[in-house]
């Protein structure tokens, strides 16, 4: 075997070994992610506190007047947004914008915890369009969410591609509302 053929053969063997190591590390990382990082439970919903529906005992008009970020938090918790997670091997958090008439709220999920704020957020994965009245109706009747979206009273706009949405867990959230 000539020296040149031996060099090519050695490079090929090194390439194969490095490729196998990369695949093995990716497999170990994937298993770690599935077993440990992607776990959500009910204690993550509200820091271990009982989550109270903010519209309970209020009329539609009273709830509209009192509407704030806690309503959006409850809505996101009720559609199980706490199950969203970063895509494997990424640090890109799941982010949602909710437009309710003239108001905008955002939700981002960090390690199974929902963080809500007023305003917009950059690089949202999805945008939900609705009204305060619709959100309150959804919060009053858990079964109403599908009706609101199917009748076009609430809408979802996908901002990220389907693969990214799937890898962050949006499929389950989508099934919750459709």
Main attributes of the structure:
single chain; alpha+beta; Nonspecific Lipid-transfer Protein, Chain A; 2 domains; 5-stranded mixed β-sheet; 5 strands
Brief overview:
The protein contains seven helices and five strands.
Describe the structure.
The chain has helices at 3-37, 60-66, 69-78, 132-140, 144-150, 162-168, 170-177; strands at residues 95-100, 103-110, 113-118, 126-130, 155-158. It is of the alpha+beta class. It has a 5-stranded mixed sheet. Helix 3 (69-78) packs across helix 4 (132-140). It is elongated.
Distance between the termini: 65 Å
CATH architecture of the largest domain: 2-Layer Sandwich
Write out the strand line-up for the largest beta sheet, numbering strands in chain order: 3-2-1-4-5
Using the CA coordinates, give the radius of gyration.
Answer: 22 Å
The residue-averaged pLDDT reads 82
Number of domains as seen in the coordinates: 2
Total number of helices: 7
Strand tally: 5
From the spread of the alpha carbons, the general shape counts as elongated
SS content category: alpha+beta
Percentage of residues assigned to helices: 40-55%
